[in-house]
UniProtKB/TrEMBL annotation:
EC number in record: 3.1.3.3
Gene it is expressed from: serB
Enzyme class: hydrolase
Single Gene Ontology MF annotation: hydrolase activity
Domain of life: Bacteria
Keyword Magnesium included in the entry's annotation: yes
This protein's name: phosphoserine phosphatase
Origin species: Streptomonospora algeriensis
Keyword Signal: no
Record Gene3D superfamilies: 3.30.70.260, HAD superfamily/HAD-like (3.40.50.1000)
Catalyzed reaction equations: O-phospho-D-serine + H2O = D-serine + phosphate; O-phospho-L-serine + H2O = L-serine + phosphate
Length: 410
């Protein structure tokens, strides 16, 4: 008989308190080292796996097979007492071998069907990679699972996953593993059609009676068909002589994107700083800063003289290049490396910012933006961004409960 290096013990059965404690207590009387341990609960059923190896420092020269045989007998008895099933298998000698580069695949869908997740798993397998762990991050407002994988070429797999996600109608993000993932401490968001629903300039244009013309120019600019600065100046010129009171009316009509409050509240409670950068107007974004507790902001400023808009802008233009510069400046002020920032946007003028960030997320974005961003989210809930950061729905709710002790965060 082969003298196996490790023993894998897998216990299954009805979940209840104390199972893991009993298994570990049983193993504790043997001269073994705990190499790995994983526990999951699915539909009230527990799956608990422990990988052990003989501690040569405590029991030099001892037969591993003899120790493992004694463990089998003891664990069998424990599982009979617990009314659990147990399976033993060779651990394939995994002790002391570092895993290949680890990657995270995050899947978002509403709803998520087995075939879609199976297609993603098949895509991973075709790349020669191995799925080491699957964890559910959320069941609402969308379903999200995270797959920990190893042995893949990130660039090749990213392209394959993107095509499969498009075919299945789901969102998939691929990111490297490591502490830096949870160390992203600055999130920078576009405002119009990202943090809020709709475009502010179009709301102002309704007051000025030029809504259709402004909307047409806005759409061309967001698709990247027009230079943003030129298009902005053209649209602002159409607002000439509009009474400044319209700004207050628009502020009162702002509707946040679904999940916007939850996203900002959760990230701030988890230690993130939040910023907004907008091709819109500071007269509007300043209200959002106060309303949501935003840490940094930058936007264009409408010129107002004698209570009316002049059709001109004051100061430098926040355009595509300006948004990327703002992200870098905010990161510097926050003391966060640019590689540890997250940017979210939907339009062509967000592309430089998305590409400069450590993680660029195209949120319900135009095709040209989705093609060039690190990942895309196409569900109508802004707070699903937290799942891309490895934050589960349980952690969101725990942050909310902790925050209640200090009063509302909004």
């Amino acid at each position: 008989m082969n003298d196996h290096t490790t023993l894998l013990v897998t216990v299954t059965g009805r979940d209840r308190p104390g199972v893991s404690a009993r298994l570990l207590s049983t193993l504790s009387v043997f001269p073994v080292i705990l190499v790995d341990l994983e526990q999951v609960v699915v539909g009230g059923r527990l799956v608990l796996s422990a990988l052990v190896s003989v501690d040569e420092g405590v029991a030099p020269g001892v037969s591993r097979n003899r120790v493992f045989a004694e463990i089998r007998a003891a664990v069998d008895k424990t599982c009979i007492d617990l009314d659990m099933d147990v399976e033993f298998s060779d651990g394939n000698g995994r002790v002391g071998h570092a895993s290949p580069e680890q990657l995270h695949v995050t899947v978002l869908a509403d709803p998520l069907r087995p075939g879609a997740l199976g297609a993603i798993a098949s895509c991973v397998a075709r790349s020669g990679a191995n799925i080491e762990r699957i964890e559910r991050l959320a069941s609402y407002p969308v379903t999200s699972f995270e797959l920990d994988i190893s042995g893949a070429d990130p660039e090749v797999l990213r392209g394959d996953l993107s095509m499969e996600a498009s075919t299945q109608g789901i969102d998939v993000a691929l990111q490297p593993s490591g502490l830096h993932r949870r160390a992203k401490h600055l999130i920078v968001m576009d405002v119009d059609s990202t943090l809020i629903q709709g475009e502010v300039i179009e709301l102002l244009a309704e007051h000025a009676g030029c809504a259709q013309e402004v909307a047409r120019v806005t759409e061309e600019a967001m698709r990247g068909e027009l230079d943003f600065e030129d298009s902005l100046r053209r649209r602002v010129a159409l607002l000439k002589d509009l009474d400044a009171s319209a700004l207050e009316e628009v502020r009162d009509r702002l509707v946040l994107a679904p999940g916007a409050r939850t996203l900002v509240r959760t990230l701030k409670r988890l230690g993130y700083e939040c910023a907004i950068v907008s091709g819109g107007f500071s007269q509007i974004t300043d209200a959002l800063v106060e309303r949501l507790g935003i840490d940094y902001s930058m936007a264009n400023t409408l010129e107002v003289v004698d209570g009316k808009l002049t059709g001109q802008l004051v100061g430098p233009i926040v355009d595509r290049k300006g948004k990327a510069e703002a992200l870098r400046r905010f990161a510097g002020e926050a003391g966060v490396p640019v590689s540890q920032t997250v940017a979210i946007g939907d339009g062509a003028n967000d592309l430089d910012m998305l590409q400069a960030a450590g993680l660029g997320v195209a949120y319900n974005a135009k095709p040209v933006v989705q093609e060039q961003a690190d990942t895309s989210v196409n569900v109508p809930y802004l707070d699903t961004i937290v799942y891309l950061l490895g934050v589960s729905r349980d952690e969101v709710e725990a942050a909310d409960r902790d925050g209640e002790l200090d009063g509302p965060a909004d």
